[in-house]
Automatic annotation (TrEMBL):
Alphabetical UniProt keywords: Heme, Iron, Metal-binding, Monooxygenase, Oxidoreductase
UniProt record similarity statement: Belongs to the cytochrome P450 family.
PANTHER family xrefs: CYTOCHROME P450 26 (PTHR24286), LANOSTEROL 14-ALPHA DEMETHYLASE (PTHR24286:SF24)
Signal peptide positions (record): none
Pfam families assigned: p450
Swiss-Prot/TrEMBL cofactor(s): heme
Alphabetical list of InterPro entries matching this protein: Cyt_P450, Cyt_P450_CS, Cyt_P450_E_grp-IV, Cyt_P450_sf
UniProt name for this protein: Cytochrome P450
Keyword Lipoprotein appears in the UniProt entry: no
Protein's UniProt keywords contain Iron: yes
Organism for this UniProt entry: Rhodococcus baikonurensis
Tree of life domain: Bacteria
Length: 455
């Protein structure tokens, strides 16, 4: 049965938001985890662009379609905040991260952090990534049931500790592995159903993990302040905005913990989606491999990676098919409107690019893997400014998107030149959306060592 969220003020001409509460206690949480697209499609069919649904005792509005997403993300009247929205999901573990800040504070931090993602810095990161990827892939042992997602997750976490922390000279191997575990605990805690620090729960492990990460970064921070190197940890200690503002020690720590999270699962799922579809479409795999081999190097520069045009089309298509951040959280801090609907102060808002990416109105045959839709002669993504929005939009648009593209292409370049792989044409990844999407079977691929690596 549908109910309205709140009655609009008299004479406002605004529509109420209709929706449904789902199962007792859990609401639509299980339906979302299993198949968010089906849940959103049902809301779209029944209620249109703006509707409400319930998640573990809390009502959220679903903002669907590019027009509605654009309105919230552009946030012209500043009625929506990130902090109160994201905090209920990940706040205790990732507070202080750029995505959880608002208004002037957000602007100040973003202006400083932008200096960490300039073209020159990304070029240096690519130079550091190449040998790290190369040596990590030496450890891959191909099999016909190789768990690609699982291996990619380890790879990207290793790269993050290398590239983001510079290995942190002086730290021991056991310290680094406890940091990795603490980080994973924080990520997993964000989706815990029990949200109290009861011993033995994911929530408690997450809180403990946060403490481990804080202590670790605080211990090594003075050395990073003293010596400027190219890793992100050191960079955050030294950058300043054009107005000369810098991060305090606490701010560096908060940002490091958040950036590890922002960079890790998002890149991993993109890579694993690319491996899946390239495994199912050998012509595309050959085409991408031919471009990579033509570079004839195992140390491609950022510009080289930029020139891998087929890989770029594949990456964009995979970001469309499986959006690493399927929904973005916001909260209304005062009464406002979305597409003519009344949104009362306090409403939790989920903006859903993943749904837009599968709308047949904008993407012909949306479930088909068709990278050419992004080619210059088609540019289906241009049909609406917010038709393709895997990196969000507005003032919180992903700051790491160019870094992410470079890292993903660098890893794919190394994979394509070393291996070929095959995935059954009928395989459908069993995606779990408990947090960011991941294939619950670890994504098996038939992986073969094909070429001796280009040196
Ligand atoms: C395929 C990979 C990635 C995807 C799809 C992705 C997606 C997103 C999205 C959708 C947002 C906006 C969230 C919102 O508006 O609430 C975001 C924000 C952010 N991302 Fe990414 N991201 C990726 C990789 C990265 C990487 C590699 C980094 C850093 C190294 C990064 C750093 C950030 C930061 C700092 C923000 C917050 C920006 C702000 O609030 O001003 N992301 N990302």
């Amino acid at each position: 049965m549908s109910k309205i969220l709140a009655r609009p003020p008299m004479n406002s001409q605004l529509q109420p938001i209709s929706g449904r509460s789902g199962l007792p206690l859990v609401g639509h949480a299980l339906a979302y985890i299993r198949d968010p697209l089906a849940l959103m499609q049902e809301n779209w069919d029944r209620f249109g662009e703006v509707s409400w649904f319930s998640m573990v005792g809390r009502k959220w509005i679903a903002v669907l379609g590019p027009d509605a997403c654009q309105e919230v993300l552009q946030n012209k009247d500043r009625a929506f905040v990130n902090s109160d929205g994201w905090s209920v999901l990940i706040g205790p573990f990732f507070h202080g991260g750029l995505m959880l800040l608002d208004s002037e504070e957000h602007l100040r931090h973003r202006r400083i952090m932008q200096q960490a993602f300039t073209r020159t810095r990304i070029e240096k990161s690519v130079d550091a990534l190449n040998p790290a990827i190369d040596s990590a892939l030496d450890a891959w042992s191909p099999t016909d049931e190789f768990r690609a997602y699982t291996a990619l997750k380890t790879l990207t976490l290793d790269l993050a500790t290398d590239i983001f922390m510079g290995g942190v000279e002086g730290s021991t191997e056991s310290e680094i592995s406890s940091v990795k575990k603490a980080f994973v605990d924080c990520v997993q805690a964000a989706t815990s159903l029990i949200r109290y620090p009861v011993p033995g729960t994911r929530w408690k492990r997450g809180l403990d993990g946060r403490r481990v990460l804080e202590e670790f970064f605080r211990r090594y921070l003075p050395a990073r302040r003293n010596l400027e190197t190219d890793d992100l940890f050191s960079v955050l200690c030294h950058i300043e905005s054009e107005a000369g503002q810098r991060f305090s020690d606490d701010e560096v720590i908060d940002h490091m913990i958040f950036l590890l999270m922002a960079a890790h699962d998002t890149s991993t799922i993109t890579l694993s989606t690319m491996m899946q579809y390239l495994g199912q479409h050998p012509k595309w795999q050959d085409r991408c491999r031919a471009e990579s081999l033509a570079l004839a190097t195992s140390t491609p520069s950022y510009a080289d990676l930029d020139g891998l045009s087929s890989l770029d089309l594949v990456m964009k298509e995979c970001l469309r098919l499986v959006s690493p951040v399927p929904v973005m959280a916001r909260r209304a801090v005062r009464d406002t409107r979305v597409r003519g609907h009344f949104v009362p102060a306090g409403t939790y808002v989920s903006v859903a690019p993943h749904f837009t990416h599968h709308m047949a109105q904008y993407w012909p045959d949306p479930e088909r893997f068709d990278p050419e839709r992004f080619a210059e002669n088609r540019r289906e993504d241009k049909v609406h400014r917010y038709a393709w929005e895997p990196f969000g939009g507005g003032v919180h648009k992903c700051l790491g998107m160019h870094f992410a593209g470079a890292e993903i292409k660098a890893i794919m370049h190394h994979l394509l030149t070393r291996f070929d792989w095959n995935v059954d044409a009928d395989y459908v990844a069993p995606l779990d959306f408990t947090s960011l999407p991941f294939p619950s079977d670890g994504q098996p691929v038939d992986l073969r060592r094909r070429y001796s690596p280009v040196r």
